[in-house]
Design brief:
This protein is about 50% helix and about 5% strand. The longest helix has about 40 residues. The protein has about 200 residues and is mostly helical. A hairpin with a 2-residue loop joins strand 1 and strand 2.
Length: about 200
């Protein structure tokens, strides 16, 4: 059983407390006591509302379960089902048009819609997959579509098509984001030198 640590009246697992206090906060300039007090304040204000919402969800689920149990074996009636869901408040009228604003959001997230994946920073493959999901993978775009002039063959990865994809992607980069000298076809990798990205 976990022996929780007291942080501003909250019971916090030692592993979480250590991570927050030793790894997260020092780089942010936030004092641990103030952080935990803020967390406790948020929990204190919103936990009752959250519990009420969870209870309402449980009530919805119970009533919906009862509805379908009572009609077991009957043909589905979309009109009756919608009426029931509106009656219990599960479905509500669409609200009037509205706008919202959110401050302090990085431009590449605020102005470009796309998936936002949370991944562990220590796993390079996860990070690459997340970046590709967010902004798209050039290789995937060429391999999985007819951008090369034909569709990919069915079945496992096709190495010959993969080689065509790499060549086409590097040629595309030579046009879209050319290097100061040379071609992407001649680059084996990149490194950061004095804050600059240098091809190798």
């Amino acid at each position: 059983m976990t022996d929780y640590l007291d942080r501003a009246g909250l019971g916090v697992a030692p592993e979480l407390a250590s991570f927050i206090e030793a790894e997260v906060l020092p780089g942010l300039g936030i004092e641990a006591g103030g952080f935990w007090a803020g967390v406790a304040d948020v929990f204190g204000r919103f936990a009752p509302e959250n519990r009420a919402l969870l209870a309402r969800r449980d009530d919805f689920q119970a009533r919906i379960d009862d509805w379908y149990r009572a009609r077991r074996g009957q043909a589905n009636d979309p009109v009756a089902t919608e009426g029931f869901l509106r009656e219990i408040g599960y479905l509500v009228e669409e609200p009037a048009a509205f706008t919202i604003t959110t401050g302090n959001v990085d431009a590449e997230l605020a102005t470009l819609a796309g998936p936002q994946l949370v991944v562990p920073i220590l796993n390079a493959r996860f990070l690459l997959n997340a970046a590709n999901a967010r902004w798209g993978s050039l290789y995937d775009a060429f391999y999985g579509t007819d951008a090369l002039g034909d569709l990919p063959p069915k079945g496992p990865y096709d190495a010959a098509r993969g080689a065509r994809v790499v060549a086409r992607a590097k040629a595309f980069l030579d046009q879209a984001a050319p290097l100061a000298s040379g071609s992407y076809a001649d680059v084996a990798g990149f490194s950061v030198v004095d804050g600059a990205l240098v091809p190798a």
